[in-house]
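Lab channel / #folding
Pinned by the channel admin:
"Please post every new chain as: sequence first, then the structure tokens as a reply. Keep commentary short and put observations after the output so the thread stays searchable."

First post following the new format, from NK:
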Amino acid sequence: MTIRVRGLRAISPSSADLEDAPIRHLDTIQGSSQPLAAAVSVVAADSTAPVVVEKSLRIALLGYRSQPHGGGQGVYLRYLSKALVEAGHSVDVISGPPYPHLDPRVRLIELPSLDLFENGLLSLRPRHLRSMTNILEWSSKLTGGFAEPYTFGRRAVKFLKAHGREYDLIHDNQSLSYGMLQIQDMGLPLVTTVHHPITSDLRIALNAARNAWERLLIRRWHSFLYMQKKVVRQLHNIVTVSDCSRQDIARDFGLQPAGISLVHNGIDTEVFRPMPGIARNPMRLMATCSADAPLKGLRYLLRAYASLLAEFPELELLVVSKPQPGGKTEKLLARLGIADRVQFVSGISTQQMVDYYAQAAIAVVPSVYEGFGLPAGEAMACGVPVVSTDGGALPEVVGDAGLIVATKDTEALAGAIGRLLRDPQQREALGLRGQQRIDQSFCWDVCAGQMTDYYRKVIADANR
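Reply from TO:
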């Protein structure tokens, strides 16, 4: 196995996984072998008053799977780490596969797993059986479970037992694994982001299930929730990304809302921005959502799109996603007779995403629930008028800068889209208003500053 630190390579003997492998962590990558100094007091040349310069922090961000196109958690790790280094901090991202796409100034420390969703159950080899973590990961997948948060926690504990004191603070990105309680018990300041309670995903998936067998499989897949509910009640420092999520987490996990801190997500407005050189297609809709996830509500948009074709026969729909072959989305496309009208794109770069936004007349967010709503925020930052449902925290993000309709209401969704298609002036006004709203209230600079203040409070409390 090879353990890679961005820009460097540390070789260990072939082994099953990080739990069993010797680890070399290279803490001099930035040219300094000295520990971070404590806060420094300097005296200005023209003043007798000391000016306290707060030290930069060394932060470890943890993610059990962090590829940005796999979901909002990967986007969060990517942009939070970038914003923190731009604020002057040192950041390592410690992640399982699929690995994140990071700013070059952020170090990536890979914790390899079996990655069975990519490699399949038949990828197991005899060498893997030397690791109990691998055995647990494989047997869970074999029986329809999802053990990655749990097994990532085991690997993270192994790594941080050796290297945890190199960091001022550990920040877990919603693994909510038993390992996080071990890290907390080690005396390491620990912060956990909970984007939203996965109990919401479970309820929506169960409601969308067609039979008892599907419901059984869904419950088995979500069995990790037992662990997460138990862990979250014992964590000392929980932060979430919207007030809606704070209320939902408190309700579903039995916590007090006042005990959950709030730092809104940010949008990278240097990347997600209008592209004046690209012409908008007045007959193109765009959506960014997991095609077969009931939570994302694509089926309601597809039905709305099919109904709009009668009035707007030239209307296009571009979906940034990849439907499962033979899955529910493909079957619905066939039933609606629009399989050849909807374009799906996946595996694209961020710049390609921005270019697609620049070409779109309207961005649609049909989600049943969002803990924050990054697709809405990114579209608004690009100056695209948004039609959104009121699912979860979406109204917090969209505000009065878009059209908001009820979740699961195909007719209302089609009506709002049609209204904007008929009114180019309103599209232009909403696009401008949305861009201004993101610039003023939802940028990563603001997020990084608020998160740093929160980190310092957690560290101070831990040192009392």
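NK: The chain has two domains: 2-22+54-266+445-462, 284-442.
TO: also worth noting, The CA atoms of residues 69 and 138 lie 24 Å apart.
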